[in-house]
Amino acid sequence: MTPELINRHRKIWSILAVIIPLGIYAATRNLNIHYHPFDEQVPSRRGSIPGVAFENERLILTKSRLEKTTLVTIVLKEPLKHPSTTVYGIDKEQSRQLLGQIASTGTYQFESEEDWNTILLYDEIKNLEIDKIKF
């Protein structure tokens, strides 16, 4: 490389070193995804969690209403086959509200002001409905 190319190369990479982190920050600052994993033991029986609304071999789902807040707890017993699973709450008018994402085994809690009658597990990458649970 000639000295002129070395200087140009250094200036371009210096500018990119500032612009790329700023771009990443600007792109991710408005994401509204709640991720609340807890380190708890996964219950093995249905009766071990009060108020179980739904249970199968993969997950346990509970829903409770606390004053003006709806709290949904999802306990994943085994990892999902879709790593990009997004959780939506669906109300009576069939409008979706993003609650958050779930990934590996564990307990996830999502809360909102809305009261949903359906929880939708959706794969955003493949545009695939994984599970739809009605209360």
Compile the SSE list and pairings.
Layout lengths: L2 H26 L8 E2 L13 E4 L3 E8 L2 E8 L8 E6 L5 E7 L3 E7 L5 E6 L4 E7 L1
Antiparallel strand pairs: 1-7, 2-3, 3-4, 4-7, 5-6, 5-8, 8-9
What does this structure look like?
- The protein has 2 domains: 1-31; 37-134, Immunoglobulins (Immunoglobulin-like, Sandwich), CATH 2.60.40.10.
- It is 19% helix and 41% strand.
- The protein is built from 1 helix and 9 strands, in the order αβββββββββ.
- The protein has a 5-stranded antiparallel β-sheet, with no helix packed on it. A 4-stranded antiparallel β-sheet has the order 6-5-8-9, with no helix packed on it.
Q: From the structure provided, what is the oligomeric state, counting identical versus distinct chains?
A: single chain
The percent range for helix content is 10-25%
Radius of gyration computed on alpha carbons = 21 Å
Shape descriptor reads elongated
Q: Which stretches are low in confidence, meaning pLDDT under 50 for 5 or more residues running?
A: 39-50
What structural class do helix, strand and pairing data support? alpha+beta
Number of domains as seen in the coordinates = 2
Order of helices and strands: HEEEEEEEEE
Which CATH top level class of the largest domain fits? Answer: Mainly Beta
CATH architecture level-2 label of the largest domain: Sandwich
The name of the CATH superfamily of the largest domain reads Immunoglobulins
Number of helices: 1
User: Sheet with the most strands?
Assistant: 5 strands, antiparallel
Structure summary, number of beta strands:
9
Q: How would you write the strand order of the largest sheet? A: 1-7-4-3-2
Termini separation: 68 Å
Strand content: 35-45%
Instruction: Output the CATH topology of the largest domain.
Output: Immunoglobulin-like
Please, what is the average pLDDT? 81
